[in-house]
Amino acid sequence: MTNTIAIVGGGISGTLTVLQIIKQSEKPLTIFWFDTQNKFCKGYAYHTFDESHLLNVRANNMSVFPDEPNHFIDWLHQFHKQYTSKDFVPRKLFGEYVHDTFESLKNSNSNVKLHLIAEEVTSIRKTDQGFDIKTHQNYQAQKVILAFGNFLPAHPRSTSPEFITSKNYFQNAFNVQLTSQIQLHSHVTIIGSGLTMIDIIGSLYRYQYKGKITVISPHAYIPQAHPENPLPSVEPFIDSKKQYSLLDILSLVNKQLKLAKKQNLNLHSVVDSMRPFLQSIWFNFSLQEKQQFLRHLRHKWGVARHRAPAQSMAIFNDLKSTGQLQLIKGRISDIKSLESGFEIHYSDKQTLHTQLIINCTGPESDYSQLKYALIRDLIQNQIISPDPIKYGINAQKDGQISHNLYTIGPPLKGILWESVAVPEIRVQAQELAAKIISY
Question: Which residues contact 262 (CB under 8 A, 6 or more apart)?
Answer without folding.
Answer: none
